Amino acid sequence: MTGLFPGFLILSAAMFSVGAVGVLVRRNPLVVFMSIELMLNAANLALITYARYTHTMAGQVFALIVIAVAASEVVVGLALITGVYRSGHKLNLDELSEMSE
Amino acid sequence: MTVIFGIAAVLAFGGALGVVLSQRTLYSALSLVLNMVSLAVLFLLLDAQFVAAVQIIVYAGAVMVLFVFIIALLSPGAEERVRPLELRMLFGGVLAAVFTVVIGRLALNGITVTNNGHFHGALGPFSPSLVDAHGQVQTLGEQLFTTYLLPFEVTSLLLLVAAVGAVYLSKHRRVSS
Hints:
The structure holds two protein chains of two kinds.
Chain A: H1 5-25, H2 29-53, H3 58-86, H4 93-96
Chain B: H1 2-21, H2 25-45, H3 49-74, H4 87-108, H5 128-134, H6 136-145, H7 149-176
Helix pairs in contact in B: 1-2, 2-3
């Protein structure tokens, strides 16, 4: 095991944590979506780190698939946000939770 | 390599903090671009050239253009004031630190790596020198279209569903309003 392996994993863990806290703390749905992207990116970093240091290819393949999943998630999510905005609601997740009632 | 890793890691983490802490949504988006470009540099350090290129093209290109376009369209600028010393931000900071320590410890102890710093089990066949000799993209492509063909096809189905869903959502709202 070479020296930088723990560094990559700690960076990945830190980015994932910041993204998770962003999802929990922020109220703007666009920022929440960006935080989800952050978490997916952190997972990608961990996948590629393991692929490199265990000499396998699966991590890189699944990193590509995660990128595709993230792209489709952004497309559908932004379509939803635009729809909510056009139906006259404010872009605030605390107020949008009243829609479920 | 260590110096490049240090610079890219600091930039990536700073971008991540910028996404969560920025007052304006557009600054969050720009911080996310910084984060993604730094991650592409880290992918290059990890001998994943193709994924680094895809990261730049798909994420920093397509996805972020979509984000910035929607931000400009909806202009949700200063709706939300984030004060870094607010109670929930402090709580979030503590939570992030705890998460980082817990995930870091789990990842570095026990699951894949023994306490001596060696991996459980044997290393795979794709050593960096072999991948370099065969070609990085060739190796990745062969794996993607043979061993991992089923996940690849499922992903294509997912992309189709996402495209149809986005078209349906935007059409539906326009008719109803």
